[in-house]
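Hello,

Our lab assistant flagged a job as stuck in the queue for most of the afternoon. It eventually completed. Since we weren't sure the result was trustworthy after the delay, we are filing this so someone can double-check. Below is the sequence as submitted and the structure that was eventually returned. Let us know if re-running is recommended.
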Amino acid sequence: MNRLFTSRVLALAAAVAAISIAVAAGADPVVGTWQLNLSKSTFTAGPAVKSQTRTYSQSGQRITLVLKSVGADGKESTTRTTYQLDGKDYPVSGAPDYDSLTVKQVDANSAEAVLKKGGKTVGTTTRTVSKDGKTLTAKTKLTAATGQTSESTLLFDKQ
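-- returned structure --
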């Protein structure tokens, strides 16, 4: 009976370990909190933000992003979205220049988003997490509702 009990406990432990590995393998490396490193970031039309914190969380295949920014004018804003890496449109709240996005996985550490306003493409963002997991780079090209175009390369440090 002790052998049967021991073998069942070992089987259960192996199953739990296998599930844990599978869950960890499915986690996007972007998950976590990222603080903008303003000195390493570039903007085409001067600093568009004074600060920004991005928080990514994941539940199954769904990724939630909350961006808390302080603009060049000192005003605070929050942008939110929950999406999957499946190429379908997902709503965005709090962004004046786009109201939805479509995200696809590029590779294990990168994803590309197409930003849309009223169903029309207005920009793209590519986000890449460094191999060591300490830096997030977000490159964005956007045409604002005013028609002004901008490009930025934002570098974030993992918190």
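-- support follow-up --
The delay was a queue issue, not a problem with the job. The result is valid. The domain at 29-158 is CATH 2.40.128.20 (Lipocalin). Helices lie at 2-26.
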